[in-house]
Amino acid sequence: MRTTTTCLAAAGAGAAVAAWWYTDRAPYPYAQRRLLDLPLPGLTAARIDRILAPRPGERMLEIGPGTGLQTLRVAPRLGPRGRLDIVDIQQEMLDHVARRTADLGTVVPTRADARDLPFPAATFDAVYLVTALGEIPAPAAALREAARVLAPHGRLVIGEFFDRHWIPFGRLRDYAEACHLHVDERIGPTLAYLARLRPCTHLPVAQPSGG
């Protein structure tokens, strides 16, 4: 009886995972926003701080902020003279983040398609997307736009976690090379990684980090 119960429970769990996998939609629907506030293994706040390294006075861009989990952490680090622009295709998400960050005064929401960003070239010191790139149709086009609005000295951080829209690290590296970006640092395995990209220069590509 115990074995049968265990098998039924395992089958139920497997069915739930399969249902989640095949019904997972992009962009992530606002109705399920509470799940977006859950931190993901491997994409910890400490790791994001390390690889993104926000500094006072910088202007940064977050694409696909969701409910603002990263926004709330990054924006205060830019100080009163800094600015964090956030872009999302869903106005509900932008309104949600705007309410959560209203007292900061440095977060500027804009509804836009990541494949056609409404900013001049070389605008931002840093651009970042955490579990968002794979949810954008034609992610290579979105990466090209992110590279376009990045300043020559800037950094572009991509965080990916294994789900239906996950982009393996090897594919990201191919996209980056096509956009004249190189991998400056990587943290974590391909199933849950953070990668920092920079405009190509004479500098050698850094080796992946296991931290």
UniProtKB/TrEMBL annotation:
Keywords: Methyltransferase, Transferase. InterPro entries: Methyltransf_11, SAM-dependent_MTases_sf. Residues 61-158 form the Methyltransferase type domain. It holds the Pfam family Methyltransf_11. GO terms for molecular function: S-adenosylmethionine-dependent methyltransferase activity. The keyword Methyltransferase applies. GO terms for biological process: methylation. This is Methyltransferase domain-containing protein. It comes from Nocardia terpenica.
